[in-house]
Write a structure and sequence with these properties.
This protein is an all-alpha fold. It has helices at residues 16-21, 72-84, 88-101, 108-121, 125-138, 145-158, 162-173, 180-196, 200-217, 227-246, 253-279, 283-306, 316-351, 356-373; strands at residues 52-56, 67-71. The protein has a two-stranded antiparallel ribbon with strand order 1-2. Helix 6 packs parallel to helix 8 (180-196) and helix 8 (180-196) packs antiparallel against helix 9. The two termini are 18 Å apart.
Length: 404
């Protein structure tokens, strides 16, 4: 996990006798513009120093009779040490102590950002989002503000607060300091928030906008990784898949023919978009797409099995012929699904990927084997498979890694 680094080389510690000598002994004092006595023939020099705070008595680390002398850089480095030791709760408190006591210090924006990172590491996303929001509002011109705005939206998404996440991302999109990769991520996350809010048309438009933005700039700018680009490809496919799943098959015969045609076209669209996702060669989204291609064929099998029997073949020899033809079509669909899922598992093994999509592919293969072996029974039937929806990407470490 990346965090804002302390600025080395800033003078930060003055021994106690120096403070006493300047008559600054007390709580909350500062030592700015230390000026030596003027010497004839010499210019006067000013040395800018960080604020120094002194804690006296029972709150001091050294006991009731002691006192602490500390400044912002000291607190920052102490918090860094706690963070590096995975003591995230203590690190958050130390970073926030710095922000409380040295609000105007240049160390405050990175400290508040790092406090948010600490809460992220603890899985306390509401508190992390609040600290990121404060970075943006209190220190809008800091170099941490842009990343804080983006990570805030990701933390809101992690909590399922999709309306707030979408609103935050809409504001991020208006920023002029976004890099090529920042904008791809922002638009993709915005599309995800709209998808989770069941605004499929808005989500699809946002994902397509992302892909068009990439195409327009891919020759002049480079992405450090294609995670969010592949994610946009995936969700374009997944929206088509969802629409395919929701399409009904209805009687009478004329309506059934229209429904079958619409469902077949939507099936082909979803399938082609999943293939486009796989071509991006991002391990996470390629395995997710491979799994969903398999489920797409399986769901077409289920739809055909559950479809109304055409009235003109629902008797005598016509029904027998229809059942035989249907059985062969179902066998073809299950075999195709099996081939796709086997390829998905082999691809994952080849590139060393182990994730939930690979596990689900393996489980789905076992189910398909049972269905194929049962196709010769008098009445092939199967319950609907559980719908697997991809999980949201978690806030990114350096915005380049995701958990599905």
């Amino acid at each position: 996990m990346k965090r804002s680094k302390s600025r080395r080389g800033i003078a930060h510690k003055v021994v106690a006798w120096t403070l006493l000598g300047f008559g600054l002994f007390g709580t909350g004092c500062s030592s700015r513009a230390v000026r030596p006595d003027a010497v004839p023939g010499q210019s006067v020099q000013s040395i800018e120093m960080e604020d120094l705070h002194i804690t006296v008595g029972k709150n001091a680390k050294d006991g009731d009779d002691g006192f602490d002398v500390y400044d912002a850089p000291t607190l920052f480095r102490e918090a860094d040490t706690l963070f590096d030791g995975d003591k995230f709760a203590d690190a958050a408190q130390s970073y926030e102590k710095l922000v409380r006591e040295f609000t105007d210090s240049p160390w405050a924006p990175p400290a508040l950002f790092n406090a948010a990172l600490s809460y992220e590491a603890l899985g306390r996303f509401t508190e992390a989002a609040d600290r990121y929001k404060r970075v943006v509002s209190l220190y809008p011109t800091s170099k941490q503000a842009k990343d804080a705005a983006l990570r805030q939206s990701a933390c809101l998404a992690e909590e399922g607060r999709w309306v707030l996440s979408a609103e935050a991302l809409a504001l991020v999109e208006k920023r002029e300091d976004l890099t090529f990769a920042d904008r791809i991520e922002t638009m993709t996350r915005h599309g995800l928030a709209l998808f989770e809010l069941q605004d499929l048309s808005g989500a699809e438009a946002k994902f397509q906008q992302t892909l068009a933005f990439f195409e327009a700039r891919k020759d002049s700018e480079q992405l450090p990784n294609n995670f969010f680009l592949a994610m946009s490809h995936f969700y374009v496919a997944h929206i088509a898949h969802k629409r395919f799943r929701d399409l009904p098959l209805r009687q009478p015969q004329k309506q059934l023919a229209l429904d079958l045609d619409t469902k077949a076209k939507t099936f082909l669209l979803a399938n082609s978009k999943y293939v486009e996702t796989i071509k991006q060669k991002n391990p996470t989204w390629a395995t997710a797409a491979g799994y969903h291609v398999g489920t797409l064929y399986r769901e077409l099998y289920d739809a055909m099995l559950a479809a109304p029997v055409p009235t003109d073949v629902n008797r005598g020899d016509g029904r027998v012929i229809y059942d035989l033809l249907l059985r062969e079509q179902l066998r073809h669909l299950l075999t195709k699904a099996k081939d796709v899922l086997e390829s998905n598992v082999k691809m994952a093994e080849r590139v060393g990927v182990k994730n939930g999509w690979v596990e689900r592919s393996t489980q789905q293969l076992e189910d398909l084997e049972k269905l194929l072996s049962g196709l010769d029974s008098p009445a092939p039937s199967t319950p609907q498979p559980p719908t697997q929806t991809p999980s949201r990407p978690a806030p990114q470490d350096n915005r380049s890694r995701a958990t599905l």
